[in-house]
Amino acid sequence: EVQLLESGGGLVQPGGSMRLSCTTSGFNFNNYAMSWVRQAPGKGLEWVSGMSNTGGNSYYADSVRGRFTISRDNFKNTLYLQMHNLRAEDRAVYYCAKDTGYHHPGDAFDVWGQGTLVTVSS
Amino acid sequence: DIQMTQSPSSLSASIGDRVTITCRASQSIDTYLNWYQQKPGKAPKLLIYGAYRLQDGVPSRFGGSGSGTDFTLTIHNLQPEDFATYYCQQTYSNLITFGQGTRLEIK
Description:
The complex is a heterodimer. By secondary structure, chain A is mainly beta. In chain A, β7 and β8 form a beta hairpin. The mean pLDDT of chain A is 97. By secondary structure, chain B is mainly β. Chain B is built from no helices and 11 strands. In chain B, a hairpin with a 6-residue loop joins β9 and β10.
């Protein structure tokens, strides 16, 4: 069974940093692009960042570019999102999502994790 | 960035009804359009990809159409489990964007 499990969320102060992890299993992680998508409380979905299967290409939404960094470890089958200079508006549930192809973007996100909540507050 | 606009933002329907949700892109995206269903407290679920291709395991009462800038999601014979929020998504651009969502409620 294909599974994605996010971790690393919690409470952080404005201006602080946090790293999210997405541990995967049940598929060949090396062969698929991956993305992070977030959802603020009561709001819609916002794509945050995506990375190709090799890690050679990465892309960011304007709202996080320069503050967030996506990375992956294909030996550990894990995707990461390093977040710096966090703002109140970054408060959201962060989902990792598996793409259907090896490049970004592929066709669609066919598997999602359960999400991890990031709260930015003093 | 490519803007995705869904309509309506919400709608009410009854069991057995047919409903249509539309999604418009701010520029042509060919058929790089996907539809997701999300229930409260749950992750989104892929329903339709490539504008009209049904994801494995999704009931055939769900259907998608369109190309270019205008797309539709149609649900025939609404079932209780279909009441949820639906999002369109474009993957034409490296900067992926979603529509704002359509909440489907029971009348």
